[in-house]
Amino acid sequence: MKEKNDFQMEIPEDWEPDDTRIRQNLMEACEDAFRKRESYKRFGPAFVVLSGIVYLALIFGLNSKIEFLILWVITDLYTAALMIRAEYKFHKYQELLGMKDPGEETGFDESEEAETESGIPAQ
């Protein structure tokens, strides 16, 4: 018996996905997310500072101060959202692939671990 999915395609009963191809596609997506993450980390803060300087020059140079202030805030929020999204996607792919970022610290040291396990603060 053949089933139909949402796209009205017939799927044979003995069909199984190719795990190596799926993992390879996930690895490629993870590498792409890593490249975007690194470029956003490198150029994102510089863009925020540069756009701030440009918008401040426009605010003090022209009469429409409120409009440029609103555009400046929108630009900063959009840039921050892009950086957060890139970080989230990269960590999501790492989670799916069972990988961990080698340069990332957990922020959780041994004394905090001992405190949480026993319930008594470590001294």
Describe this structure in words.
This protein has 123 residues and is mainly α. Helices cover 69% and strands 3% of the residues. The protein has three helices and two strands; from the N terminus they run ββααα. It has a two-stranded antiparallel sheet. Helix 1 packs antiparallel against helix 2 (65-97). The radius of gyration is 24 Å and the shape is elongated. The protein starts with a strand and ends in a 5-residue tail after the last helix.
Helix content: 55-70%
Average predicted local confidence, pLDDT: 79
How can the largest sheet be summarized? 2 strands, antiparallel
- β-sheet strand percentage: under 5%
Number of strands: 2
Side-by-side strand order of the widest sheet: 1-2
Rg, nearest Å: 24 Å
The end-to-end span amounts to 66 Å
Detail the poorly predicted runs: none
Order of helices and strands: EEHHH
Number of helices: 3
Global structural class: mainly alpha
Shape: elongated
